[in-house]
Amino acid sequence: MPTITYIEHDGTAHTVEVAEGFSVMEGAINNTVPGIDADCGGACACATCHVYVDPAWQHLTGTQSEAEASMISFANAVEPNSRLSCQIKVTAELDGLVVRMPAGQH
Amino acid sequence: MNDVPIDLLAQADELAATTKLDKIDVSQPSLYQDDTWRPWFARLRAEAPIHYCPDSRFGAFWSVTKYKDIMAVDTNHKVFSSDSQLGGITIRDAPMSFRRPSFISMDPPLHDDQRRAVSPIVAPSNLVNLEKLIRERSAKILDTLPIGEEFNWVEKVSIELTTQMLATLFDFPFEDRHLLTYWSDIATADLLSGKVSSEEERNEILQQCVKYMRTLSKQRENGPPRFDLLSMMARDPSTRDMDDRMFLGNCILLIVGGNDTTRNSISGGLLALNKYPEQYDKLRANHALIETMVPEIVRWQTPLAHMRRTALEDFDLNGNRIKKGDKVVMWYISGNRDEEMIENADDFIIDRPRPRQHLSFGFGIHRCVGNRLAEMQLKILWEEILARFPAINVVGPVKRVFSNFVHGIEEVPVIIPSRH
Fold first, then answer.
1. B420 within domain boundaries
2. Helix or strand or coil: residue B2?
3. Does residue B130 belong to any structural domain of this protein?
4. Is residue B15 part of a domain?
5. Among B137, B247, B355, B406, which one is most buried in terms of CB atoms within 10 A?
6. Residue B270 CB contacts under 8 Å (≥ 6 apart), including other chains
7. Alpha helices, DSSP H only, in B105-176?
């Protein structure tokens, strides 16, 4: 099963196994990793699962859809590697993925 | 305790079950004032989840009553417009001359720029700065409450705390802060509520708001940067040159957004804990449940009953042919009771596994910008309440607002028997 490392804003790292087919957001929620709120439950409608994808992995996580870009534009502390983690599907090639969380979800 | 007369509830059940579907009109403000809205929406969700009401005080309108359908409309801003000139975000159509654009009643791209102009004030980094202030104020308000004596919780706690917060966000003269509550109430009042009797009268009162806010805004255009809503709007390119109508629209949006909603969640939360005493016991036994109780309060109360959109094109919504120009009302208050998405949805349960999955803040680009501030205010208030009082008892009938938009509470008579 692919492993994903979620790093909280204070630097605390959580490495968990996430089955293929789940989203990176679901991987956090199902493993009670703090720092991702996911208010809308994965509908790309709230921007509270905001993460920063480690630059080494950006080419494998795809790019923001139009709806995702629109929601992210209202989030706080947006960076070029910002993504909504509900929009990243876990695949075998994402084994080892590293994402970081912002100070707070908004 | 049950605060609504039993016969009124029984009558509503009977009427809601027997009225012909095309005669059902959930826009009647009395349903919310009497707290008899539940059976009407339960019927619509079961039999006509997307329902057309051909005739009401507010004209013809579609009702969207199920969680997923509301989500579909809310996230489709390209078809379902919020534009004030088409009628904006409430079921009530203001006369053309009083339609005031604001970033909630606007579509992209101007919406996006104006929202971004003010959103940093409620971003996580600034909430940290506000936390101490909110705690001090909550403590001060709670410490002055009478013990063993009946008082109105709405007036002494809900209004006081939210108005103080709003004054801070606007950096509004503290001694005049009651004006914010007043303008907020006037802006949203139903014309049959007795608060205002015509759109002209409403407009006249709100012109005082323009005048007052413009004076403050002018003083803040220049000089060292300040971090308050008026200064942010006065300096951002997307908001600094607004005409009076748009300036008022945005002021009212920010006032109502920061005022009615949190106020009614503070009142509703206390009411809910009194209606569900076993939940109050659970909370007293484990204060950490405040974390999941807060979003449950916001769901259970649903401080804004609906948001309205106008269709920009013909659209098929689950087999219902919505026509260009139709008024589409998303009843958040109903979606938040949708059993398909929320188990035992009518009940107040403070330890739900996914408490933030509710519609009260809306979803999509217009999602409530102050949602985390609202949650923080409620969280701090309840921490301070539990630290002080073993119980707060609702002791008499609750008075609710005559409105289909602001799902509000005017009076909650309470007695606090003792302090810890």
1. no
2. coil
3. yes
4. yes
5. B406
6. B153, B392, B394, B412, B414
7. 110-118, 124-143, 153, 160-170
pLDDT in tens, A60-100: 999 999 999 999 999 989 999 999 999 999 999 999 999 99
Domains of chain A: 3-100 (3.10.20.30)
Q: How many domains does chain B have?
A: 1
For residues B173 and B182, give the distance between their C-alpha atoms in angstroms, rounded to a whole number. Answer: 15
Assigned token pair, A77: 């502390």
Tokens (6 digits) for B358: 């509710």
Could you tell me if B404 and B159 are in contact, meaning their C-beta atoms sit under 8 angstroms apart? no
- Residue A35 gets which letter from DSSP? T
Which CATH number belongs to the domain containing residue B27 in this structure? 1.10.630.10
Distance from CA of A55 to the nearest CA of B (A): 24
By the CB < 8 Å criterion, does A69 face chain B? Answer: no
Contact B116 A74 (CB under 8 A): yes
Q: Which residues pair with A98 in a beta bridge?
A: A5
Say whether residue B130 is in contact with chain A using an 8 A CB cutoff.
Answer: no
Give residue B78's domain range.
6-415
List the structure tokens of B91. 């079921």
pLDDT tens digits along A9-66:
999 999 999 999 999 999 999 999 999 999 999 999 999 999 999 999 999 999 999 9
Tell me the two tokens of residue B345. 């949805």
Its pTM stands at: 0.96
